Amino acid sequence: MKRLILLLLITTLTTTLWAQTSVNENYSSKYNQKKFYFSGWGEPNKNATKEEQLETLKKWSEAGITDLLPSVGVERLKELIDLGSNYDVKIHAWHWMMNVGGSEECRENPEWYSVNALGQSCRDFHPYVNYYNFLSPFSEGAREYIKKGVREKAQIEGLASVHFDYIRYVDVILGNNLQKKYPYKGGKLKQDRILDEYDFGYHPNARRQYKDIFGIDPMELEDRAENPAWQQFRMNAITSLVNECVEICHEEGTAASAAVFPFPQLAREYVRQDWAHWNLDYFFPMIYKKDHDGNMGWVGFATKEGVRDMEEGKHLFTGILVGDYGDNLEDFEKAIHLAHDNGARGITFFTINSLTDKHLEIIKKYNKKFNQ
Predict the structure, then answer these.
(1) Residue-wise pLDDT tens digits, 100-133
(2) Quick check: is 17 in a domain?
(3) From its phi and psi, is residue 204 left (phi > 0), alpha (psi between -120 and 50) or beta?
(4) Is there a cis peptide before residue 66, judged by omega within 30 degrees of 0?
(5) pLDDT tens digit string along 271-304?
(6) Same domain (yes/no): 51, 156
(7) What domain range is 356 assigned to?
(8) Domain count, the chain
């Protein structure tokens, strides 16, 4: 009898693992038909007529754009899926996660919000910009709220993926170029050390759980800002939430993707985002070179670092900010080359609507070149 039970347990475990592997392989295979893909965050003008929107989709599709990532509601997503099907353009649901802006439901639950090292709640203290209202991954109520939103999007028929964004903490450190844009105590912001105002993750539950493991409240750590265990502990809370949301997406029959910071080491240091350990199907690192005073080499370097740290079988799409290139079409072309040559599955443009006809001609050229 014991042997039979053991065999049944082994069979069940094997079947579960096989099913999980099959699901992941199925999502991966959706981006194996071409060698290199082009996509963009955004959508056609929703105020345009249906015919005008179809004309826009046709123009993008003919250039080689296969995927759009719009930040819209459920009904608009359904509409875009229907429109996109005319030209084989897949639609992903660009979905904000930890940053909830002015959500009334969240504001009614102050215990859901992230807390910084000064004890300030992100419900009432807005670091950097007014719409920065981050929830805490240590709040069960906040986690359930986030998972509920993911499931709502994941249930949409024909969706390519639920695309997680703001799945991180408030920026501990901004890119060097971004720091120049924000004042700080009557002067310019200079983050040459970790400042308490921007060091988040001190939710009461986080402090309590950390103390249960390590025997000390993280507020009492001498090296609190730099302590590696405290940093990793907070990152793990985001990772577990991501992986639970990935499971929800797979349960509902869709893939999971995310906009992440440029490469794993930078993501860990700047926003406590350990995305190399996430169970996502697709990764979209935002490799915006000017934010970090980077040159063209930044695009290739960040792409290579991300591809290196991903699990085998996952796909990475290099995100580039079209505005970084202005009228420099030569560098725009070079960015596409660098992403391709360093192992990306494709390029994603922020935003799709910022692409001019000249950009589209370049995309069309490389779509043909890379996918012959």
Answers:
(1) 999 999 999 999 999 999 999 999 999 999 999 9
(2) no
(3) alpha
(4) no
(5) 999 999 999 999 999 999 988 888 889 999 999 9
(6) no
(7) 32-86+286-372
(8) 2
